[in-house]
Amino acid sequence: MRGRAPGTWHGDPPPGPGGPTGLAGAAGDWNGTRWNVDIEIVICSYNRAALLARTLAYLDQADIPTECSVTIKVVLNACTDDSIATIREYARRRAAETALPLRWVEEPRRGKSSALNRAIRETEAAVLAFVDDDHRVDRYYLTALCRAVTEYQDSSVFCGRILPDWDGREPVWAHMRGEFAIYPLPVPRYDQGPETRMIDEGGPIPGGGNLFVRRAVFDRVGVFSEELGPKGHNLGGGEDSDFVMRALAGGERLRYVPEAVQYHYVDGDRLKLGYLLRKSYQRSLAVTWVRRQERRLPPRYLWRKLAGYLWHTTTSLYWPQTRFYLVRIAAILGEIRGHLKSDRPGSMDGVR
Question: Which CATH architecture best describes the domain 10-271?
Answer without folding.
Answer: Alpha-Beta Complex (3.90)
